[in-house]
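Collaborator request log, item 7. Partner lab (contact: R.S.) asked for a structural prediction of Zinc-binding dehydrogenase to inform their binding assays.
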Amino acid sequence: MRAAVLTGPGRLKIEPVRIPKPGTGQVRVRLEGCGVCASNLTPWAGPDWMSYPTEAGSLGHEGWGIIDAVGEGVEGLGIGDRVAALSYKSYAEYDVAEAGSVVRLPASLASLPFPGEPLGCAMNIFRRSNIKAGQTVAIIGIGFLGAILTQLATNAGARVIAISRRSFSLDIARTMGAAETIRMEDHNDIIARLKELTGGVFCDLVIEAVGKQWPLDLAAEITRERGRLIIAGYHQDGPRQINMWLWNWRGLDVINAHERDPKIYLQGIREAVDAVASGRVDPRSLYTHFFPLERLDDALNATRDRPEGFLKALVVFR
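Returned to partner:
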């Protein structure tokens, strides 16, 4: 099979490698595609802790496809089942996963790409946020995750205020149901606008979905007293500072919405399957860029640089 191998910072090659065999309790998935995650960007940039070359297919963890081989002891799954897989070497044509780490996709989703991990992540964040009808919710950062959360919160009856730096992202937020949009340019102007939109009390709940210092600072500033601040951004490029005086004074509930338990990841993916199949979530317009495996480097660079019209890249195999 063909698989991507990172050979150094910003460099990769596609190599022919042996197709993996599923072990006991595992299935092999002939992949249709794999989403490109922003968490790949730090390894792609080459931090000190990275070592090269990587294992074939490494970093790809948003795969979906068709089961084509089943290991011993697997029950309830069979060859031909289309699944979303929670596996970790999916920048390749095949990957293996534990049978308990795949979710079968219904026939109604047969023609739809389904990067299960990020969709499941959005569902888990939404559950942790505990959004209620009538609340005012600000979402800072309208990428793939922020857009899905905008739709989920709107459908829950919340009034969503979307904040993002790109006009294209704000357009997406409006199509997903945002009641108000604000360009993320000037810190004080954003605060003033939120104060105006909320009658001076700010937001019941704020979701920070960027993963940078400034959006984290802004998130606390626009959360009301006894409001809830949800950290959904992936903060992986160094320590952060917080204004504990403000957090204390306002009595904020702060929730780190990242999960590490694979069972909860799978719960989120199952909820995402139900949400997409029922029409509560429609991610189709969010898949904006498609690349063959040979252009994974372009997919990673687009995810980093976010050209006009970009929201989510998928590597597709067939």
